[in-house]
Design brief:
Layout (H helix, E strand, L loop, with lengths): L10 H17 L5 H12 L3 H18 L5 H10 L7 H13 L13
Helix pairs in contact: 1-2, 1-3, 1-4, 3-4, 3-5
């Protein structure tokens, strides 16, 4: 049955998505830096590894494609929220690799002649 093959939600993936979205939103909000950092730290629940992963991927992808413009500022907030700074370079490399991959691949050429 179709419902038996559904994947269970990934709590870390959900947290990373929330951190990414919140950091980007906070960069453009009127919230003070201290309040923004506190919000991100609360979302991370002590997961300094997830803070580092999101910050590093934002920075690495930004190095490749230059967008979005708020990525460095969002990463700065994540780092200030307690990201494990020893892991950021690793995640920057992953971000660069992901940003370098094509979003979609072209369909294979037709073999019909």
């Amino acid at each position: 049955m179709w419902w038996s093959r559904r994947r269970t939600p990934d709590p870390d993936g959900i947290t990373k998505a929330r951190l990414d979205g919140s950091a980007r939103r906070l960069v453009t909000s009127d919230v003070s830096k201290e309040d923004a950092v506190a919000e991100l730290a609360a979302l991370a629940c002590g997961r300094v590894d997830l803070l580092a992963e999101v910050a590093g991927i934002l920075l690495g992808a930004h190095q490749v494609d230059g967008t979005p413009w708020q990525a460095p500022q969002a990463a700065e907030l994540l780092i200030a929220a307690g990201a494990d700074t020893t892991a950021i370079d690793h995640w920057k490399q992953i971000g660069r690799e992901r940003a370098s991959r094509p979003m979609h691949s072209a369909p294979p050429p037709s073999r019909d002649h």
